[in-house]
Each structure stands twice: as structure tokens, then as C-alpha cells.
Amino acid sequence: MTPPDPAATSPAEPLTAGDHPIDRRHFIGAGGALALGLLMGGRNVIAEEVTLAVPAGGDEPVTPVGCAVIGLGEQGRALLSALGNVPGADVRRVCDHYEGAHKRALELVPKAVAGTEVQAVLADPAVQAVWVATPTHLHKDIAIAALRAGKHVYCEVPLAHTVDDARAIAQAAQAAAKQVFHAGLQSRTDPQHRHVLGFVRTGALGTLVQGRAHWHRRTSWRRTAATDKRQLALNWRLDGALSCGLMGEIGIHQGDVASWFVKALPTAVTGFGGVMAWSDGRKVHDTVQCVFDFPKDLRFMYDATLANSFDGSGEVFQGSDAAVLLRDHRAWMFKEADAPALGWEVYAFRERLGDDTGIALVADATRILAAGKQPGENRDVDPRRTALVSASEAFLTAIRGRLPSACSALTGFQATVIALKAHEATVTGSRIDFQPAWFQL
Question: Of 16, 66, 179, 256, which is most buried, counting CB atoms within 10 Å of its CB?
Fold first, then answer.
């Protein structure tokens, strides 16, 4: 079901962001309001929130954008697969210093030119947009060089493995006012998360009291290769000097969802961690837990492990009237018996989950109804519509329309600061109080 849109009562004239005129016709709110520089708790200013540009749908033609992907490991190949499902994504070049990675990449984009030199990619006038998908500690030089070369940049998160490097990237992005910089926080452009955000923002949960999230997957993070040098390069996540750990590489996404949903930056984080399962000499933890403190005594709990896959991943936000659960591409609301009626829930599809009955929150309800189907009973998701597809499509739509990114440099920087400090807390087993200056560029 679709919640009321608080933005619907806003003035009809165009808003502005930087040098770009923003016509409301080009945006969807997914039920969320536009928040401009909200000051939370007198301490931290959260990044400006921009509603999501609507990508062209169906058979409507779009202007092709010349694309390049730098870094052809697992994430780089996932991006190439995603771009194959994004209208107008014309992949011209792929780049990795390891030539052995080129073959698998070219299987996905056979018309692209493969090379080892980043500068050759940046010197190509046919390349307008660059995806930076290298290991985190290599982002800085590539992202800044791409911006200086006049390219639009999509940078995976965390932006960098240190706060100083992340700040340098974000500052370079802000200085490149004519280019779009998009941080790869996939939930920010995910239709299901944006849909649920509308219910949270319109007060359907009552007073928000706590939240939690988790990510569980049985995987070692260790990679093998023919040579010691290559194996060392592949296992950068297990190098304590380079790795951002589970909180940086994985937890950054769900930690950002918490900040986004509650419209605040955390004030502190307490962390714990250990090598619980993969006793292979590694120092980087395979299991972590964090507690984030937010203003008004709100807390958000997070845990992640590489040891066990049970329960996958998901987020829960609990309020005095209802709770919402997000899991994969689906979401539900669970109302308290004495919660006030919202009106629409009488007609909603209900589903049993364990001992509870939830109301299905369906992101594409309008489209499904237009097709003559019932939203709650028709939630099969097109496997081609992944979170990476939505993120890449939003990036290209912003480029074509000269619009601000749905996930700006400041948003990516603040999420990176939170994740890196959370990682530090798990390594030291301590509490870290966030300083306002850490979030400023």
C-alpha cells in the first residue's frame, strides 16, 4: 500500500540544489519528505536528502551514456551485469591492472575495450561516467583523477579506508559542481527501502523506540590465486592495515539505513568483535556486534558474521504503534492491537510470519494494480531489477537530467565516517563518541 506523501503539500514551484533547477515532476518521494540540512540533537548535521529522480521506464528511449568500470573483481563484474539491464548504459571501457580479470569482464560486455591503465580510460572522450569498484584503499586516487578529468563518478562505499581519504574524495566531488557524484549506498535508491521510508516518516510507527539489523553469510572472505602476490592482492579485506572489516565493507549499508530512516547521525557507537570461526591466522574479525546511540536515547543494534548464513539479512524498526521489517526485496508492518487505525490497512494483504501477522508493504503497488493484479499476492521481483540496477539507473538519470545525485558525496562521506568508526570500535572493543567535526567537509 502507498502512504500519504508529506511532500504533496509543498509549494508547486521548482526547488533548487546548487546550480541545478529541480522540477518536482522529475522526482518521486516514495512517501518521504525533502529534508534540507536537518540539525539533530544540536550536534550533527545530516546530509541533505534528495528525492529520487524517476528513470525512464518501459520502451521510452533514453540518451546513451558512455560508461567505464574500473576494478573488475567480484563487485566490478556485478556492476557490469547490472549495467546490462540499465537502459542507455553504453559500456565503452573496462579496466583492471590484472589482465587476467579482463576475460571474465568482456564476457559480460564483449564490445568494450579492456585495459590496465586508468589514465587511458579517463582520456577517452567517449567515456562520460566512471564506476570505481576497486578495493576500498585504492578508491581515492582513481575517484579524484576521474573527477578532475571531467567524468561523472559512481564510487563504491566505503568511499575510502581512512576518514582523511574519504574526505578528500568528497571535497573533490563537491568542487566538481558540473558533474554528478554518486556514492554506492544501494538502499538509498532501492524502491522497497524508499517505500518503507514513507511509512516511517509519516508517523505510522508512532514514537520510534529502537531498531536493529543483521547480515549473516557463510563465507571466508579468503581467496586463492596462482601466485603469492596475486593472492595477497585478492585478500586485502583480511589485511588489518587496509581492511574496513565487516562494519566498513558490509555494515555501512544497513548503518546508513538507520541514519536515513531516523533522520539523524549517531552520537556514539560501542563495538565488539572476534575471530569466531575462521581460525586461519587472520586478524580481521569474522563476527561483530555494534550498538549505535542516536539522539533522544534511540539505539540501533547491528550484528554481522561470516560464520553462519541463518536468517540472511534484514532490518527492523520498532515504534510505539507498529514495527516494520525489511528482508530482501520484501517488507511488512506489524501493528499493535491498540494502535490507531490508518484507514488503508483494512484493504491490505496480510501474511503470517512465524507467530505474527504482517501487512505487506509493496513498493510497486500502483503498477501492479494497473496490471489488474492484487499487490500483496503478486510480489515476484524481476531478477534483472537488482539494487545495483536501481542505483546505476538513478546515477545515469541524474546525469541526463543534470540533477543532484540521490546519494551525494556528503551522504557517502558521513556513512563512511560512521562505518570506519564502528569498525574501530569493534577492533578496540570500546565506545566511541562521534565528534561533529568528523562529519564536516
Answer: 256
